[in-house]
Amino acid sequence: MSRSSRFITLEARPEPSALWVWAAPLLAVGLTLIAGGLLFAALGKDPVAALAGFFLKPLSSLYGLGELGVKAAPLALIAAGLAVGFRGGVWNIGAEGQLTMGAVVGGGVGLAFLESTGPLVLPAMMLCGALGGMAWAAIPALLRTRFNANEILTSLMLTYVAQLLLSWLVHGPWRSPSGFNFPETEMFGPAATLPVLIEGTRLHLGVVLALVVVGAIWVLLGRSFIGFQIKVMGLAPRAGAYAGFSQRRVIWMAMLLSGGAAGLAGLFEVAGPIGQLQPAISPGYGFTAIIVAFLGRLHPLGIVFAACFMALTYLGGETVQMDMGLPLAVTGVFQGMILFFLLAADVLIRYRIRLGRAASAKAL
Amino acid sequence: MDVETLGAIGGAMSRAATPLALAAVGELVTEKAGVLNLGVEGMMLAGAVAAFAVTVATGNPLLGILAAMAAGMLLALLFGVLTLSLMANQVATGLALTIFGIGLSAFVGRDFVGTPLTALAPIHLPVLSDIPLIGPLIFGQDPLVYVTFVLVGGVSWFLMRSRAGLIVRAVGENHDAAHALGYDVIAIRYRAVLFGGAMGGLAGAYLSLVYTPMWVENMTAGRGWIALALVVFATWKPWRVLVGAYLFGGVTIVQLHIQGMGGAIPSQLLSMLPYLATIGVLVLISRDALRIRLNAPACIGKVFHPES
């Protein structure tokens, strides 16, 4: 009758297991590797060679390591912002749209100052990129606090709106006349482009800045009063309300912070590796960052490690596409799998697995 | 505008509404049992690619539709194992399902991009479908449009009139009480989640077999999320899902017609309309917090563990 089967019983632990909080992601990564090997074998590829090609080969060159940083930085930046909200029970799912608006607004500044060589162009772009993401996240925040509208659905709908807006701009008013009819803007000038840090790679200044921002979010979460309020509201909303914490303020803080981080990440993409605005500026960083946030346990340090791993799935997908002719979509399959395995492994944090019926189970 | 154009618009409207109504009515049953599955978009994509692949391989769209429902149910089963048996967070698991569905469908469908397929033909009842306006509207649609009406009616009857439906609602309203009365909360929720998956898959099949008879990566374009919004719009009442779906179908078609007339408004801005309309409607419905609280199943999204 009950949920527990005859053979396996889940017995609640008196305390959540501190060990499994961090062991579960490792278990999830291990299970993903096994499932990935099975997937490759099913496709008729040697699983060991394919996994090595997927997870090791991209790291075997300086260029590959640089690419890891280039892809991990936006993931870590967005995920750190999202984690703030997830801790407080605010579900911002529209980071992809906020990233797009950051690229649009910040990139727009870059296009307005195409000829400029001033040192303030890049900082202005970054500021406007963050503000663009914030403004886009402010809409679901307003609709939630003022009209009670579910932020999951509104932030997601706005993602489609943002992408269509970008598409309109690069197909229409902002299209470069010298772009051979491709839907893209002019390339940003040198003053509007993030400098490459290491010769022979694409590792740019934005990667370092992203890490700095992640560190700042860590300090904010761990040391500030608002960080404490967010945590309390997520764990015990009633206790928080009793203490006089405002849910409204937590929602606004979480949405603005995550939107700003996503917007900045979008600006880093267009002012860094891409160098212009195009219809597609992100391979789904805003969605993958949701996985990164959970895989990193909503903790900035964990998020940086998780971002590196997820960045590797993008690189691995590209490698096996080129080397073995496997479709790029294998990346998405890996990303979905790891989140599934993590969510499954998380049961071990709060429950002990017992074989046979639990002795303590109430007779019902 | 003449009668024939009106009939064509009406037909196009129901084609746009049908996948939304199917996915939303499945999610409605899931939510009525107290489970929030945000993976509708992923289940729809899995259904769309399964329907397309099987129809191309067998030449039989009926088999394609069955495969789509099976694919949707398979993803729903995965969701059920994680959230019901392993008590994972429903929001996070639903998102995982969508991310996985997008990746998996693109992966499976890579060989089908650009493959042509003959759309599922509308049924033409002789004489009746020749009546102007109402003929093509009421008697000349493809079979799934009618199936959708029957399904919504059936779900409405089941939830509101049948004993089993009462139990489903009880499980969604208060799982502890339902458990104390001896009902198997988890088993009932599994069935509701699987029904939602089958409907999501069917909605996907409609997209790839009827609406645009082809396979394109991510071809649902957010319809799964609109379906989730529709459930809120309908305040968890099946017939209102149908009304909402036709409303949104209407917005989609009006938008496409303005694009077709080659107006001065850029197509991208017009394409935003369905999403903006969804936000607008969500705001209108949700601002009455009391109504949402009275209608939403009380246990929605909450983890159930019988021994705790």
TrEMBL record, chain A:
GO molecular function: transmembrane transporter activity
InterPro entries, per database record: ABC_transp_permease (IPR001851)
Main localization of the protein described in the UniProt heading: membrane
Keyword Iron among record annotations: no
Cellular component annotations (GO), alphabetically ordered: plasma membrane
Transmembrane segments: 20-41, 72-90, 97-114, 120-143, 152-170, 203-221, 250-268, 280-296, 301-317, 329-349
Keywords: Cell membrane, Membrane, Transmembrane, Transmembrane helix
Record Pfam families: BPD_transp_2
Location in or out of the cell: Cell membrane
Bilayer topology annotation: Multi-pass membrane protein
CDD domains: TM_PBP1_transp_TpRbsC_like
Protein name as catalogued: Inner-membrane translocator
Organism, as annotated: Rhodospirillum rubrum (strain ATCC 11170 / ATH 1.1.1 / DSM 467 / LMG 4362 / NCIMB 8255 / S1)
From TrEMBL, chain B:
Signal peptide: none
Subcellular location: Cell membrane
The keyword Membrane is assigned to this record: yes
Membrane spanning stretches: 38-57, 63-84, 91-108, 143-160, 192-214, 220-236, 241-258, 264-285
CDD domains: TM_PBP1_transp_TpRbsC_like (cd06580)
GO CC aspect terms: plasma membrane
Molecular-function GO terms, alphabetical: transmembrane transporter activity
Topology in membrane: Multi-pass membrane protein
UniProt-listed Pfam families: BPD_transp_2
Superkingdom of origin organism: Bacteria
InterPro entries: ABC_transp_permease (IPR001851)
Keywords: Cell membrane, Membrane, Transmembrane, Transmembrane helix
Name recorded for this polypeptide: Inner-membrane translocator
Species lineage: Bacteria, Pseudomonadati, Pseudomonadota, Alphaproteobacteria, Rhodospirillales
